[in-house]
């Protein structure tokens, strides 16, 4: 089976400073892969490097068979990669409906866009009831739902989520992870970065531990939850 995403010996950084060193992993179709790691480990940098928001020094980033390591971000969107950054990215002064329309701006065929919008609103009843509301007036969790819904309008193959649960109340955290599962049910491959280690791994298929810009451990998510090193360093157990 061809991986949706294959990252091969990736090294990248900011200016002269190398952050990511020789990172290798794959995300298979219909799979959720979660990267965990301490603050400053390079998790966000990894997603940014894949989305070509910082220069790649060496290595390859493949979507299917296609090498995308030198492609601009708008080309990556067209190729099927969606990226939801760590900090909120809804347009607060636009309505839910207008935000969704922004997510579909690369879709040329109006009929296709209308069909996708209807389908997405059916998946997210919270949004459907309030399409005319300003996005900035929604709770943090609801804004995350909107970001997730918005990515679906471009029908991506891979969705990258940087800490989708950050700053949310526990109930909202569960709702967001339910939605990440929902994305997998839609056939999407997911690459997620999370600090909410236990909950994130429990919805994931695979996981990786990033330390100082390298992926040290990679395994099935269920095995990582039981891994003694992960428990000690990331689940606060001794
Ligand atoms: N724009 C930037 N310019 C220079 N250095 C940066 C920049 N952004 C991040 N860094 C550095 O890169 C390293 C990795 O940062 P990154 O944001 O990827 O960590 P992270 O694992 O996502 O952390 P967190 O869990 O806090 O979000 C850090 O040492 C950080 O200081
Ligand atoms: Mg980060």
Detailed description of the structure:
By secondary structure, the chain is an alpha/beta fold. It has one domain: P-loop containing nucleotide triphosphate hydrolases (Rossmann fold, 3-Layer(aba) Sandwich), CATH 3.40.50. The chain contains 10 helices and 10 strands. The protein has helices spanning 43-50, 73-79, 96-103, 110-123, 125-128, 140-152, 170-185, 197-203, 221-226, 228-234; strands at 5-14, 17-27, 32-36, 56-63, 66-67, 81-84, 158-162, 189-193, 206-211, 214-220. The strands form 2 sheets. The protein has a 6-stranded mixed beta sheet with strand order 6-7-8-3-9-10, sandwiched between helices. The chain has a 4-stranded antiparallel beta sheet with strand order 2-1-4-5, with helices on one face. Helix 3 (96-103) packs parallel to helix 6 and helix 6 runs parallel beside helix 7 (170-185). The longest helix is centred in the last third of the chain and has 16 residues, at 170-185. The radius of gyration is 17 Å and the shape is globular. 40% of the residues are buried. The model has no long low-confidence stretch (mean pLDDT 93). Adenosine-5'-triphosphate (ATP) binds at residues 14, 19, 37, 39-45, 86.
């Amino acid at each position: 089976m061809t991986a949706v995403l294959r990252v091969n010996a990736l090294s990248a950084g900011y200016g002269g400073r190398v952050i990511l060193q020789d990172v290798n992993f794959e995300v298979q179709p219909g799979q959720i892969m979660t990267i965990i790691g301490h603050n400053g480990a390079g998790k966000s940098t990894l997603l940014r490097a894949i989305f070509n928001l910082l220069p790649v020094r060496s290595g390859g980033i493949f979507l299917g068979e296609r090498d995308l390591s030198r492609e601009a971000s708008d080309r990556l969107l067209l190729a099927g990669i969606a990226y939801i950054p760590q900090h909120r990215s809804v347009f607060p002064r636009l309505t839910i409906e207008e935000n969704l329309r922004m997510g579909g701006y690369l879709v040329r065929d109006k009929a296709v866009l209308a069909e996708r919008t209807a389908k997405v609103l059916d998946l997210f009843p919270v949004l459907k009831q309030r399409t005319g509301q300003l996005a900035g007036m929604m709770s943090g969790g609801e804004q995350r739902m909107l970001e997730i819904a918005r990515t679906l309008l471009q029908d991506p193959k891979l969705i990258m989520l940087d800490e989708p649960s950050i700053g949310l109340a526990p109930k909202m955290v569960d709702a967001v992870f339910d939605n990440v599962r929902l994305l997998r049910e839609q056939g999407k491959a997911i690459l997620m970065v999370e600090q909410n280690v236990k909950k994130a791994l429990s919805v994931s298929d695979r996981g990786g531990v990033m330390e100082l810009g390298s992926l040290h451990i990679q395994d099935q998510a269920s095995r990582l939850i039981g891994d003694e090193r992960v428990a000690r360093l990331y689940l606060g157990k001794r």
